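Exercise 7. Given the components listed, write out the predicted structure of the assembled complex. Treat all entries as one system.
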Amino acid sequence: MTVHNLYIFDRNGNCLFYSEWNRKKQAGISKDEEFKLMYGMLFSIRSFVSKMSPLDMKDGFLSFQTSKYRLHYYETPSGLKFVMNTDLSVSNARETLQHIYSNLYVEYIVKNPVCVLGHNLDSELFSSRLDAFIRALPYYSPRAA
Amino acid sequence: MSRQSNRTTDSKKMNSELFTLTYGALVTQLCKDYENDEEVNKQLDKMGYNIGVRLIEDFLARSSIGRCQDFRETADVIAKVAFKMYLGVTPSVTNWSPAGDEFSLILENNPLVDFVELPDNHNTLIYSNLLCGVLRGALEMVKSTLF
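Answer.
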């Protein structure tokens, strides 16, 4: 049971934050390209999901899974996007991502006048609190399953 | 493994008089610095904008409200949830334009203007212009983008 990595994107597609805990395999492309790829994929899949939905859409795209990992997605109305890859034992990380938004992002970034929104989040406090929070999650363990 | 302790209530109460007097001191100082009502209005709007851009995130985090479906819902959320949460007052939503794209928020009692009397030589000063800036900044962050 583990969390692999976490991305935070803003409404313009800039990757504000990335951190990994348990990533065995890299993507083979530079980090910039990886962020662009991730954002592009999210944009397309959200558009696809809403177009093809047979019913009125409520939350839209939530997560996808492969045989090895699950990607969880949470977006705020202000366009902030949280993406977390975990292993398959985590079925719903929406609350976790909401917690990261309300109690970590808003508290340590938004309320900090020195942190410029829209750029890479360079708050030591945010990084360390986020790291501590992830490690304290019930489904986190240092070794991947 | 112990969970991190979360702050369960985030609303820090503050003395409303301190808030009102601080705002009054702010506007007074701006008037002294700029000596021109139009300029002061602009500055208040700018400051409000910077506040609004960040306030919206705090609002979304605390109220867990999703996207509004139409403009009327937006007006209701602003009046009944947002103003209530931050200023403790609920303005009334009135004066809808025929096209439904303009409305007025009327504040019966505005906490910013308690004890305040504007002298005659500041006729064009919009004292609570900070609030307009806050609304502008906040709404700009949640406007619908091309999908």
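Discussion: Chain A has three helices and five strands. Chain A has a mean pLDDT of 90.
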